[in-house]
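Illustration: NTF2-related export protein.
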Amino acid sequence: MDPDAVAKAFVEHYYTTFDANRAGLANLYQDGSMLTFEGQKIQGSQSIVAKLTSLPFQQCQHSITTVDCQPSGAGGMLVFVSGTLQLAGEQHALKFSQVIIFSLTSLFISIFRVFVSLLFLDVPFDANTAGKLLRVE
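Result:
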């Protein structure tokens, strides 16, 4: 199994679902999953989806620029995603980055822990700077 292909397929599925129906992300999280959003730690599938669906925008479109992955032991992967987020009615897209840590179990992808840092920056994206700003536990 090619880790890059798995990571890219997961990222495509995640952001397509996020853009169309955030509540549909619930089956990607487990009770032990954690999302860190702007310093706030949210644990469990229901709580994470509640946070994502309560964001102050209803429509958005992600455009993925980078998907980098690295094996993280015990069949897991660390995935770094960056790109832009276009909100409905806004002229300029926002830059974002996300770090995802997940484990692979047989043919099923189950997220073990997810740490997210959305960086809404009005400055050009720089991977080195973004890496310093990301909070990974």
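Reading the tokens back as a structure: Strands lie at 34-37, 40-43, 60-73, 76-87, 94-105, 108-115.
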